User: Fold this.
Amino acid sequence: MPHLLLPLLALPFVMAAIVAAAHRLPRTALAWLAALAPLGGLALLAAMTPAILDGQVLHDRHAWLPRIGLEFTLRVDGFAWMFALLVLTIGALVVMYARYYLSERDSVPRFLAFLLLFMGAMLGVVVSGNLLLLCVFWELTSLTSFLLIGFWTHRKDAREGARMALVVTGGGGLALLGGVLLIGRIVGSFDLDTVLGAGDTLRASALYPWALFLVLGGILTKSAQFPFHFWLPQAMAAPTPVSAYLHSATMVKAGVFLLARLHPALAGTDLFFYTVSTIGAVTLLLGAWYAIFQHDLKGLLAYSTISHLGLITMLFGLSTPLAVVAGVFHILNHAVFKASLFMAAGIIDHETGTRDIRRLGGLRRLMPFTSTLAIVASLSMAGIPLLNGFLSKEMFFAAALETPAPAPMRVFTGVAALLAGVLGVAYSLRFVYETFFGDGPRDLEVTPHEPPRWMKIPVEVLVLLCVAVGIFPALTVARLLHAGVSAILGPATPDYSLAVWHGLNWPLAMSLAGVVGGVALYLGLARLLDLHAVVTRAIGRDLFKRHLELLFVAGNRISTRLANNSLQRSLLMLVLVAVAAAAVPLWRDGLALSLAGVQPLPLLGALVWVVMIAAALGAVRLHRQRLLAAIVLSAAGLMISLTFVLLSAPDLALTQLLVEMVTLVLMMLALNYLPETSPPEASRWRKWRDTLIACAAGAGLAVLAYAMMTRPADTVAGELLTRALPEAYGRNVVNVTLVDFRGFDTFGEITVFAIAALVVHACLRRARMAPERLIAGDPVQLPVPADLTQILFPLILTVSIFLFLRGHNAPGGGFIAGLVLAVPLLMQYVIQGAASVESRFGFDYIRLIGLGLVLAVLSGLASLLFGVPFLTSGHLDLQLPLIGHVPLASALGFDTGVYLVVFGGAMLMLSMLGTIRGSSRRRAQRKPLDPDRRSPSTGGRA
Assistant:
């Protein structure tokens, strides 16, 4: 069974990629294709069901970064199984619903791909067996929910809601990471089993309060608890399928999931009890009160969601076994009736063109079937008998009354529970009466009617579950609930009854009082107030926007004061920080320099050294003449390459040479939009200041380089030399280090390089700039060089592939090969122009970058299938006809990703610099330039 966990997690991500690639399929085919992910996941969960119901805990462990405690561990017990079942079931229904909800203008492939990515992230949170891994998926849920909430990019409210959700939940994710790190320090492990078994150790630590509040920071922000509840109503700008999924079973439930998951480790102290239960109770009442006065159907449901999440949080805060049972039960019940209500609200919006309650009313006559479904779900939300919401609400009342706390706290919890029952009935009654009864609808542009048959099926399934669980709880949900509860409480699981009738008792009396009080409250408010005229103010939203604006203003002031829109000032600050960061440890710990490892400098080396210094000084002397300075500076780069040759580092020498060639061309293209000469320095003081800083930085680097080159031989370098061939199957230690020993670092570097290229593309694709100066006459034609570059391209391509294939055992590799392939295309771009080259080759550089990153990730993940850490190399010896023995290392796949990213990134930047469109407001000059004039392109003074 453990072998099913990885396919369960991977399925949504794989299907997201397939759906995105199959974007030309009809939307029905795309919906069925996307539905394969949740349906396949449900099949895998079904295969695990006998073991889970038998009380087993399934593990699938893969080493990832074991030295820091990060293992790719998947863990499924009864609670994770129950939650995964919830995520996948409602996910499948949402996919079907979205097929009919989205308009013809909406990109269905993009939406479904985002939805599946979110589904995979949520499953990752649920099945993670390592807290650090859980944090990774936790942040991924924030990122993917940002894409879903902001799916309608043309709407300002969607963009603002997505940004607000990302800021709040992303900030909470950072707090959670801090809490997890503290837990790992206290317990000595990030393994979930170890943490859950070390509750006494955790609670006895002096760091427990800090760890608790940081973890609660992540939980409360994700589950929209007071005072972080304001982001959830703003997220209603998302398409309704997103709201139905994120705000019923997934996004907001991630917080209460983690609260339940870590309950055995964190609960059991007065600090936990009072903090969590109080915040839950305040959120419960606040959300319910605001829900009554909402005019937007989804807004009402959003505030009711906040209230129910507060109810669940309060139950886990009370921490009694019965409260935990009620919390887990209400997670299930709320997901079912709230998903159906959101879908019903979406149907109403879809068929009437509005969600404004003030314009609705009387829909039971025009949409009788949808009205019936929504009314039943609303009654479940209100806790009416014979529906699932009634059962968990009665458990909630019983847990609130049996709280083992001082009398004031017992009174507080009892009163809060009763008020919550009253308010819940009131807002449910407003949802039902003002939408489906009374006069109306009013001022609609269309005549409401029932939606397509298949659009109602998800709502029908969920409402049927509400009724089935409410009438036959022991037959429908008992084993599912027991599996989830026993995974949390273990031997402390209490005896509880899911019977519909428990006799006359206080919870039943509170239920009746809640119904009567709720009806009376709604009728009283409707009589005393004009509910349609009440406008509630979202204080939290306004405070968030105000503080965000203040943050932007402060950031702009700081950046203006520090950088002053000047590249020179930015470079100055960067160099000063780098010098300070290097100087502090050297000043504190010292640096032992030795002359023992010094070797005599050969004559050729001395000549290279002299030329390099002369080039550096020449670049300083000619710095105002930008073109000459760039050429002279490239000579220094060439000398550095020769220095690597002298030091027997052919890989570094080849890399430096190719980087110098590529960057020189890029600099030439960039210089086209800058003045020929830079303005004179502002003052003599600035010259001396820059000279001192440059000397300090250069001297520091020289000392560090000398210290590194004179270190004893028995360091990590010797270990790498020893391990390269037997463990990584390569003789080229440099390449083996890049793609194996330090492969994760290399993956980060190519990711940064890809991001840089994409940023250049994003900045320049719509840029309008005129060259600083135009040369008179037509462009010079260079037919011979143009023909030579075309003739030599197949040869250089062959050399590139040769260097790529030999890189694991000789100088070469993906980085070098990618640059080698880029050089002839760079020359063709410069000589023939971008249009000519791209018409013949037609490379899609962005797709190449994406393909390279995907290959790098897949090659790293492949090693996990064999039970070894991420990016661990394997080896295969092939005996091919005519060719003979061919040794292959699995690192070749990762190196292929490096190859594609480097080539695609370099060419993307070049193509964007070479195809900038002219400015309609600023024209290039044809007259001599004033050398003392500062161009607008260069910014302010440093």
User: Anything to note?
Assistant: Residues 926-942 have pLDDT under 50 and may be disordered. The longest helix spans residues 156-187. Strands lie at 58-65, 70-76, 875-880, 884-889.
